[in-house]
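Name: NADH:quinone reductase
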Amino acid sequence: MWKAAGVKVLHKSATMRHALKAQEAGVDIIEIVGYEGSIAGGQPGDEVGAWVLLAKATSTLRVPVVAAGASGTGRQLAAALAMGAQGVTMATRFLCTVEAPIDMKIKECMARPEVDERQTTIVLGTLSNATRVFKNGVAEEIRRIERQGDVDFSQVMPLASGGRTKKMWQETGDTQDAMWSCSQSLGVISDIPTCKELLRRMVAEAEERLNHGAKCIINSKL
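Structure predicted for NADH:quinone reductase:
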């Protein structure tokens, strides 16, 4: 139905097996996301980072590939392009922009120096729905419940509910009182720019890095 309507279909995949099935199904673009990202739905054994997944995807898949998972800088954009991707997608980085429609206290938390790439954790893995989230008391309590074994979602639902997270985003701004998804790109966030400032900065840095990389090529005829 989408194809008949002229819609381009992008499928987000955290594994090569899912990417290959999506390609077989006829999607137009595949967004490949590494374990660093805030992807949900992972299973044990799927803990593979973007550095490996992207290299494999761009050398294996026939459709265009977009890189995802903790992107937030021009250096990462340049690396993705150099590896054969068409670009990057970002989620966590855009949360920490002027325009993002969330409480300013959340953005200020994300931009603090002590909130780095180590401030995330994985929850819901025992339910085959592994999700990377901000490391706080709520996430740690979910992990404690999961360690007890034989867990069903009803046991963690009050902690993981979307309503609780929505209240944080829109009302309280209390980053310690909800389970909220974010990637390890927290480690490369240090300010709250406008989207225009962020993208211009990323493009300039990517161009600088790609030009630098081109200078590393040695003319074999010399």
